[in-house]
From TrEMBL:
Assembly information from the UniProt record: The complex is composed of two ATP-binding proteins (GsiA), two transmembrane proteins (GsiC and GsiD) and a solute-binding protein (GsiB).
Protein name according to UniProt: Glutathione import ATP-binding protein GsiA
Membrane topology: Peripheral membrane protein
Keyword terms, alphabetized: ATP-binding, Cell inner membrane, Cell membrane, Hydrolase, Membrane, Nucleotide-binding, Repeat, Translocase, Transport
Reported function: Part of the ABC transporter complex GsiABCD involved in glutathione import. Responsible for energy coupling to the transport system.
Annotated catalysed reactions: glutathione(out) + ATP + H2O = glutathione(in) + ADP + phosphate + H(+)
Compartments in which it is found: Cell inner membrane
Region (Disordered): 551-574
Predominant place of localization: membrane
Name of one Pfam family that matches: ABC_tran
Species annotation: Skermanella stibiiresistens SB22
GO molecular function annotation: ATP binding; ATP hydrolysis activity
Amino acid sequence: MTGAPPSQATPVLSVEDLRIDFAGRSVVQDLGFTVNAGETVAVVGESGSGKSVTALSILRLLPSTARMTGAIRLDGRDILSLSESQMREVRGGQVSMIFQEPMTSLNPVLPVGFQVKEALRYHSRGNDRECEAEALRLFDRVRIPDAKRRFNQHPHTFSGGMRQRVMIAMALACRPKLLIADEPTTALDVTVQAQILDLLRELQRETGTAILFITHDMGVVAQISDRVLVMRNGRLVEDGTAEAVFAAPEHPYTQMLLAAVPRLGDMAGSTGPRRFADDAGDRIETVKPQRKPILEVRDLVTRFPVKGGFLSRHVGNVHAVERVSFTVREGETLALVGESGCGKSTTGRSILRLVEPAAGSVRFDGQDILTLDKKALQAARRKIQMIFQDPFGSLDPRQTVGSAIAEPMLLHGVATKREVREKVAYLLHRVGLEPGHATRFPHEFSGGQRQRLCIARALALQPKLVIADEAVSALDVSIKAQVIDLLLDLQDEFNLAYLFISHDMAVVERVSHRVAVMYLGEIVEIGPRAEVIGNPRHDYTRRLLAAVPVPDPRRRSHDPIPPGDEPRSPIHPLDHVAPPRNFVEVAPDHFVLAS
């Protein structure tokens, strides 16, 4: 920037009366706020509230159809009046942004080190050698192990957490005055999320960078923010310090958001799951051991081939699931938890034989799924249904939702066409939608509504077991609470058994009777929910629980989460034999893998 440096009283960012319209429709109205040097301001709200549009407007990255009025001042200079060439100097040099999905933000055909070095060279931060040295220093700073070797690797060779660290290194390369972080931890596991938040706090202390942190995770907000802005339908409805907003929210919408946040520890003293709508007491009684097991998994092994060499020969295997055993009883919820890559989803898919296991047995209702032929397997799948993480990806965009719900019933011949219409109307009503919605297409529904549609489709065949694979992880906080309440109501009504796959420990505590913790394809701890969460005995379980953000600024942790080593590789040579594993019963029905 040219001219005299701004006074200390001048905010780094000042937004005044901002209004953003798309094709005559207002998406942000009369928005105003400031961000000071060294301050972290969190912008919270649900999907459609205008958070991300506001962030993109600050960098002028909105499409040409957007019309902006008002003022966005960076160090006192209105960036809405700058030319495009001037904005190119602002982007990266004075304002940087970390996007939600690093894989789509990084160029897949260029090495990650080159991409960071390119940002430095564009803003004239030295010659090629100096830029490379600075990029390596940044990689070390964001704790990318073996930075020199990984400098020339491509984005697809990095985990999600490591890719996000590359994005942070790139964003901080030119020491910007303002860093905009748009949902930077939403897709990350809790331990990686905690490390990223620690990293941002530490870098902010060193550089004095102002941070505008956009999220819908109130636990993250409590851990990192100094002030909180709450947006709804494009308007700012509450603005205050983090302590004030969490302790005494004034606006009803803020009160609703905070009431819908699952808090780890809220279920202490409770034995069964509990709906958010219930103020106290168990919604469902504890499943008694004498109840009939509906699913028995024994020594399940699933591996994926690794090709290598000039002829792409089979040189090894990814040991995705390694000798996994557990039981799910009628009317019970067993939560399968762990970080990305631990084998949770593969376990769920192996049970349904959506991927073929290499060994083991899966007995459902007394029948071994792994020995069935195609016709018998199709019949067995009537009683086991799956709810996937991405409801939009699991619904046919060219098919009405009524047809999508009716299709499995017609395919299995369990109802006539007239009965199917009545059943579809009943299921839509049961999941909180209108029977008239049957004629609509998936794109006409919100994310939460689409997830309800997937639940309705899963219930169409009256299953005994539902495998819910990260079924609520992508939902806004209030929608998440509604879907959890719905799942518990349906369990109570139909005596459903759930295999609930998740990495959100606060949600797991809310919905489960028992918990199994997975790490690198193995179950390391399994037992009653109150025991596993209240008295974890395995080091990995303790680390998972310690990393869960607490939605209370007064309990903000100042102790950084140890970065630890990168998990050992699950890829092994063809002749690898997994070592024997023994479990120790540390309490009734509570087992821990012996080290």
